[in-house]
Q: What sequence folds into this?
């Protein structure tokens, strides 16, 4: 039997923890960060399947089904060519998603700080509870939230899943619009021949800068829409000056870029835009004036439609209670009574349907004013960038769906929280409707604009 060496034992007056080195907590743990590891494994498996396995199957199928003998040096059956092209396609899609998610992470900060007058330049992202600054890894879009598992690394309090949802939504919007408008060479744009110059090779090695400029403006429109949805969900009102500056940029982009101005303001009853594939609005004054008229009329039409439909939604579904209205007397607690700890207000204790304790008529008035401003400015931005035809169709369809959704929501429960929730849902429906119209812009133009 082997006895332990007594000389290795620590002295009685020296505690053991002081003699042992402190164990450093690892930044990434497979047991703790399994959602992040699962996501990374899925991304890698998708690349292996799309760039390695699928090309091998397709090359083998082409060789077997071909009626003629295929030269082994033919690039069409070269695995190296297929692998390089598929790898470029796969990671370009993920690059667009990560770019959109990064912008979604930024507009999360803008949506919450700018209405409160806080800076977005001098201070980085931090925890709203313990004020701990987020590291570069923790602040990475989507992956950072999953690695933290929705909790702050310092105080371990939960981080709202709204940040993750907005990052994923913006990333998916970027992928969808970039695939249809950039990789497919303007498949969704009216009056554009898209069949020549499509694919990853033409996009990366032969970039079309006018089309890229139009893509940037269109992506920024949906980013602003999602940003205003986030602001509305926090019951805040976004300042007017930044949005008016963005509106001016849209009008200038519409006038200067021939790929942005797709439909003339006289359509479908008047003359259509001529074939201007080789013309620049800055070089032709008459064309620049035509673009300015189209953008200005779209802006005015969008502002009018946004104001009318927004007022209808507010009047019908979100009426503001009188300032002197109070909850029912029987629902008031006694003066000397105190609520129990961790207790929540009973939703059925207010038979008059008044606001919850965390809201009042003044807050409801502020939320209604914020919704009217967000709803109207989004209509104006879309009208200035896409034309009055697009905003008219989008506004009518989105308003009908929003009224239906808000009506169903109001029947289930009528309180201040339902009002705020209905306003966010209405903005979300409008954004989804505009996205559907933008992806099918060519076919909607063929059906409604008359070409």
A:
């Amino acid at each position: 039997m082997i006895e332990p060496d007594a000389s290795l034992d620590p002295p009685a007056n020296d505690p053991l923890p002081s003699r042992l080195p402190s164990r450093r907590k690892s930044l990434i743990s497979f047991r703790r960060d399994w959602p992040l590891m699962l996501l990374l494994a899925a991304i890698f498996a998708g690349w292996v399947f799309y760039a390695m396995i699928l090309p091998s199957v397709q090359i083998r199928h082409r060789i077997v089904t071909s009626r003629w003998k295929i030269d082994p040096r033919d690039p069409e059956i070269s695995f190296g060519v297929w692998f390089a092209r598929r790898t470029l396609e796969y990671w370009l899609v993920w690059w667009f998603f990560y770019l959109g998610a990064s912008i979604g992470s930024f507009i999360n900060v803008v949506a919450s700080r700018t209405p409160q007058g806080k800076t977005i330049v001098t201070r980085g992202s931090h925890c709203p509870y313990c004020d701990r600054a987020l590291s570069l890894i923790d602040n990475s879009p989507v992956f950072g939230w999953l690695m933290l598992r929705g909790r702050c690394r310092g105080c371990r309090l939960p981080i709202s899943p709204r940040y993750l949802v907005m990052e994923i939504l913006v990333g998916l919007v970027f992928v969808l619009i970039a695939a249809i408008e950039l990789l497919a060479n303007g498949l969704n744009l009216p009056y554009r021949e898209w069949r020549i110059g499509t694919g990853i090779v033409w996009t990366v090695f032969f970039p079309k800068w006018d089309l890229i400029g139009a893509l940037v403006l269109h992506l920024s429109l949906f980013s602003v829409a999602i940003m205003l949805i986030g602001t509305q969900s926090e019951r805040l009102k976004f300042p007017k000056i930044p949005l008016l500056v963005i509106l001016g940029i849209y009008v200038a982009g519409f006038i200067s870029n021939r790929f942005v101005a797709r439909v003339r303001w006289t359509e479908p009853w008047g003359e259509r835009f001529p074939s201007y594939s080789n013309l620049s609005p800055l070089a032709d004054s008459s064309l620049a004036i035509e673009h300015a008229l189209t953008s200005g009329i779209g802006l005015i039409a969008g502002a009018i439609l946004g104001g009318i439909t927004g007022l209808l939604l507010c009047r019908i579904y979100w009426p503001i209670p009188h300032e002197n209205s109070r909850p029912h007397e029987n629902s008031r607690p006694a003066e000397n009574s105190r609520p129990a700890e961790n207790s929540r207000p009973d939703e059925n204790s207010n038979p008059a349907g008044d606001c919850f304790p965390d809201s009042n008529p003044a807050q409801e008035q502020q939320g209604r004013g914020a919704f009217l401003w967000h709803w109207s400015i989004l209509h104006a931005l879309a009208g200035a960038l896409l034309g009055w035809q697009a905003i008219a169709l989008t506004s009518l369809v989105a308003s009908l769906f929003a009224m239906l959704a808000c009506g169903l929501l109001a029947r289930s429960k009528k309180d201040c929280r339902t009002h705020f929730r209905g306003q966010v849902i209405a903005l979300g429906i409008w954004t989804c409707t505009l996205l559907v119209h933008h992806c099918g812009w060519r076919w909607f133009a063929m059906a409604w604009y008359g070409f």
